[in-house]
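dumping this here before i forget
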Amino acid sequence: MTPSDALPAPARSNRPRRWLLPQTDSAQAASLAHEARLPLLIAELLLARGVSSAAQAASFFAPSLDHLLDPYSMLGMAQAVERIEQAIALGETILIYGDYDVDGTTATVLLKTAVERLGGTVRFHVPHRLREGYGMQSEILASAAAEGVRLVISVDTGIRAFAAADAAAELGLDLIVTDHHLPEAAQDLPRALAVLNPNQPGCPYACKFLCGAGVAFKLSQALLEKRDPERARTKILPSFLKMLAIATVADAVPLLGENRTIVSIGLEELRRPVGSGLRALMQEAQLDPARRSLTATDVAFRLAPRINAAGRMDIASEVIELFTTRDVARAKELAARLEKLNSERRETEAAILADVATRLVAPEFAAARCIVMDGDGWHRGVIGIIASRIVDLTGKPAVVISRENGEAHGSGRSIDGYHLLDAIESCAGLFTRFGGHAHAVGFSLPSDRVPELRAHLVDHARSRIADEDLGGPLTCHAELPLDHITPALFSWLRRLEPFGMGNEEPVFVARNVRLAGPVRTLKEKHVRLNLAQGPRGTQYKALGWNWAERVAALDLHQDQPLHIAYRLRENEHPEYGGLELEIADLQKSAP
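structure:
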């Protein structure tokens, strides 16, 4: 089924996409399959994930708490733990400075809970997206210092907060930075008592792609295990992994290594939600862990948007209260509030997207290889999502800009092969602030500079994106003819979960399949096909979400030969359930 929190996407361009298949070392795959007693296809998929031995395969398929890395292998951990323990012993109030998204609010909840379990006193600050913006602000630190705070810990922020770190030092505040974003330069770190970031120079920590909540968790793990290692391992840390799994999935970090352990155990723990807030949020999201296990998709499309809605539409501090309150009635009230904000977010997105869709047909956008679109008063909390939707609609990089009171705030998303931050840095003089990475950027600039920015980005993309790169290639993972699909193979594929970035759900390719019946259109947007292949005419149903327009353009007929890229699904309906295909792409093949 389509995720309930995803707006229905208009069809992409009918431009054929390139399918990319990995080069597989067949001898190495056969050796791994034999050594680990795996189907050859599963061995091929594991090799692509960096799993090359039977021992590694066993660990991959059975994540456990023992796979969590030693937190003290993270640079700065010993100093951070020592200072926090000192603050707890002296009764000092600790300020946790968070961020307004799922990652930042979850990080705040985890560290706050850990310190309070150890007897510490904690207050927190989560900035307002529109009034304060991202990152630590000197004014907030000054206010905290005036109220007697002496220790500040940033979570999911701070690695580039040079001005705020200098202000903290001048105020006599000890600062511990916990973050996962890339430092600005190889040797440039903010002034702090300790910096915890696996991506800082010289840090030997093996998992470089923890989310911000993951770094806060490692600090919590070090604190809790030092006080009572047995209780921490058996009782507290598994409970923490519930929340950390949500943040890890929501932040779209690679689900490999320690992150795979975190999400695998966390999803299992989510079957037994204990906190009033988590139970209330699941109820609002219509998720019942007693009836079925939660998946990473449930987290990404049902839980994360509701948590994110607070920071996008209003104030994210309510998320902290939701996950820390023990008052059942208050938890239900806060969860209902997030549900309302999420509905407002969806309505706001839909209104802007409707405006965007009518404007995209203009010749200037049809010809451009990068879409730069601006609007008056567009809600800044959703423009990043709108940029992602334009990429889905057009297969082109997209930058969406909201203008208000002479200021313009923008967010951009890219396609594979086009480095969006490089594009932004090539006109850095236009901005008052910017940052990001290859696939996503954010920035602000005076509104009167928007036309110049648009012209520059359109020219930049024209010189660097070839026609065949538009739409982005479709990464496929293996050839799997339809008559090679079996329930046993599907069971092995399920063991590769949880799927996410770095451990993507496999997309398979079947060539020269036959359309074995008429095309059925569902709700005027979706299609269902019957496809057959092999000497016995093995048939499977194939469902294409938002594929009606593209299938109509292909002008398919009975017995049409096709190539299909697909994901394997299981329909659990008691009457007509079974294995079926979800269409990722379709192409006509020669008769």
